[in-house]
Amino acid sequence: MTKKFQTWEQAVQWLRQQPDQQELVLAAYYDDPLIEAAERYRSSEEWAEIRQFLPVNRFRALDVGAGRGIASYALACEGFSEVVALEPDKSEIVGAAAIRSLAQKTTLPICVIEKFSERLPYESNSFDVVFARAVLHHIKDLDAACSEFYRVLRPGGKLIAVREHVISRQEDLPQFLDEHPLHKFYGGENAFLLKQYERSILEAGFHSLIRVAPLNSAINFSPYSLKSLQRKVAEGVARNNLVTALFVEKALALFWPILRPLLNAIDNRPGRLYSFIAEKG
Question: What is the DSSP secondary structure assignment for residue 125, as one 8-state letter?
Answer without folding.
Answer: S
